[in-house]
Predict the structure.
Amino acid sequence: MQAWWEVAALPEAEPERFAALAEAVGASVCEEQAPDGRVIARRFWVPEDARGTVERAARALGLGERIRLARLSEDWRTAWQRHWRAQPIGRRLWVRPPFAEAAPRGRLDLVIAPSMAFGTGTHPTTQLCLAAIEALVEQEAIRSLLDVGTGSGVLGIAAALLGVPEVVAIDCDPVAVREARANAMRNGVRISLACGDRPPRRRFDLVVANILLAPLVALAPELAAATRRWLVLSGIEKAQLETLISAYAAEGLRVVQSQAQSG
């Protein structure tokens, strides 16, 4: 079995840069919280052959001296089990790995298995998207949703659990599509999945895209054209917000609400 490495953020590491480092190597950050809700540790895990990539990306992001790498002496799945807990999100969602406690009464159980596909429910951008989907579904009848850059499928699966009849999800990574399909089956929902980096030529009541700034800007004309009512965009840093707003204003869209979350 290939060895795995734990990458931990030191206190001086900026959360946004550490998240960018994880994304650069196809991992997701897991946060450990104190009883009062404070984040006391951030970690992710990579296989042995990705260690060099982590070190190079860390230097490029200015994190070379702000992270700690440690070779795991146990199976990597056990490391996930130690640090990845269930996340209550919004009023109704309960996002968890298969080994965490099931949802309490009144919450929808959304189970996402550990994988290299982005989207575990622990990252702030994912949490903001999930809360936005829930709020819009409760606000009005959302009959169709497009999830661009689906990763683990967590956003599309959440929409299906919340009652959206038609969910279409795309990702340019075939591994992510495979993981999303497995997670959809695990949650007992049906969503339409496809491998690709371009949205379908049709319109949806709600379009969500939790990806990086560059593809969000490049896809602005197509995402705007695919949106019938609502467009939820996430995955950027605060300093990039005006660039994103300008790109979509050029397509005739306006900002209704903007939210930020640290981590």
